[in-house]
Amino acid sequence: MDVLFDYLEKKGTLLFDGSMGTQLMLRGLNQGEIPDIWNIKKPEVVQAIFKNYFTAGSDLVQTATFRANPIALKTQNLENLVKKINESSASLLKDIRPEGKLIVGDIGPSGLFFPPVGNADFNELVSSFKQQAKVLAPFIDAFHLETFSDIQEMKTAIEGVKKITNKPIIASMTYKRTPKGFFTIMGNSLSQNIIELLELKVSVIGANCTLGSADFIELFKDMRTDSETVPLSVKPNAGQPSLQNGKLIYKQSPEEFSKDINSILNLNNGPLIIGGCCGTKPDHIKLLRQLINQKMSG
Ligand SMILES: [Zn+2]
Question: Could you tell me the residue range of the domain that residue 98 belongs to?
Answer without folding.
Answer: 3-297
